[in-house]
Amino acid sequence: MPPAENLVRQQLAFQEFIQDFNHHRPHTALGMKPPASVYSPSTRAYPGYLPTLEYGSDFEVRKVRSNGEIKWKGQLIFLGEALIGEDIALKEVADDAWELYLCSHCLGRLESGAKRVSSL
């Protein structure tokens, strides 16, 4: 598709392309059907926001910082940028060994003195 002469016409060209792509053009991966013919909306309603995570009293909770790290026992531990802003819970499972959780999902294990989380 060549570029249009202005933004309004370019937007119209995009909208025409999207209509053709989704409703008319067959796709090999879909058995030569257009995407609109196989699409079905989700049965789950979008909540708009997720409830605040709550952990039991046997967990220590840390908020993941803007660089993907938490501070734990005086050290910065990198968890990942995908977790920025999330409350992560740590549960002691052995002397100086902690499992990290997001909701009920175990993310890994942190040993005393380690600077990174190991997978389980």
Automatic annotation (TrEMBL):
Residues 4-35 form the Integrase catalytic domain. It holds the Pfam family rve_3. GO terms for biological process: DNA integration. This is Integrase catalytic domain-containing protein. It comes from Pseudomonas fluorescens.
